Records
---
Amino acid sequence: MIGWMGVASAATGEPFPPMGSGYSPDEGEGRAAFFTDVNVIYSSTSKFVSPNLSEIFTRTPTPNCYQVGRPSSYDSGLHFFFGGAGCSPSQFIK
């Protein structure tokens, strides 16, 4: 299992800041933050491989504050957008 994550924090009672560029993954290229050409090292061969799209699952514990787009495959390899505008403390807690 491999995990990628982002963290945004604020002082108690303060608004949570934007993550990435502050734009939603839906904004896409030119606006949303992204990772591209994501590879992992396959332990038995020590070679770089692109993760299989069907085996990638995303989870966002605070989707009203931050989001992650569905990974996809491009010429530059595995690619996904992420980010969000942040939110107030009352929005963060569900």
---
Amino acid sequence: MLISRAPVRISFFGGGTDYPEYFLQHGGAVLATAIDKYSYVTASPFLSRLFEYSIRVSYSKVELVKQVDEIEHRVYRECLKFCGLEQDIEIHNVADLPAFTGLGSSSAFTVSLLHALHSFKSEFIKPIELAYEAIYVERNLVKDQVGCQDQVMAAVGGFNLVEFRTEDDIVINRLPISPQRLAEFEQHLFIVFTGIRRKAADVVAKQLEKVTDNKVTLKEMRHMVDEGWDILIGNRPFSEFGKLLHRSWLAKRSLDGKISNSEIDKIYQMGIEAGAWGGKLLGAGAGGFMLFFAPPELHENIKQVFGDKQILQLKVNASGSQIIFS
């Protein structure tokens, strides 16, 4: 048996510019960090001639099939076909966080699965190549309308400014920040679950139809990536980063009316009134986790405001996809 794991991510700026529908014309970038929450995949061989099935996959359900094409789960099916595995394999998936919460868990699963399958075949793959494969599988084989940042962050990890040129020409710029400043930055993060789960592709569809109409706003959001980078590496006050997040959220909300709703707006306003400098809804919108950026001394006050809502504790700058047992 072998076990792989790939991290989910928090995207601070540039989300929406990582879709080929936009960056192939205008160029895109995000400022994001992988966090210490993971999607795990175990892969092990078994002798199918002793069973009534050739492949076993499990997630929220279990599938026992004789042919790869019989697998209902699209990502399992397409990754197995992509890697040329047709029998004698058993695969399981577990995750630290649920899907559809704005942290890129679906792509973390795809990356972790592909990594496990390559390792199962005794194949080494570079992190960036793993990202390119995951993008290809999700966009071209599974045919999901997804961006390209989640796969990259899951594969390479770290805290990065990622530039998107084409779907197989992506540049990773590691954030040159001291451990002390990074630790201080991390202490300002406050993340609360809205209680709303949604599939990103369903939210994104309308936004992609409006790429031309939203061109000016998306360019502004791309520029915020550079500004956020400058704040962090220039030792400028963290309050500037929080206020930039607020501007970014207002810009994101304007892309489409379904990105937010009255419940989400209320949650955001509660955080701001409790002392946060700014924040944003993570992921495509319409639900998932809400990020606030606030002075550490105010976090307990913010926590009290949200009562029994789930607060996410995390570490930033997590490692990319790894084989952690083989």
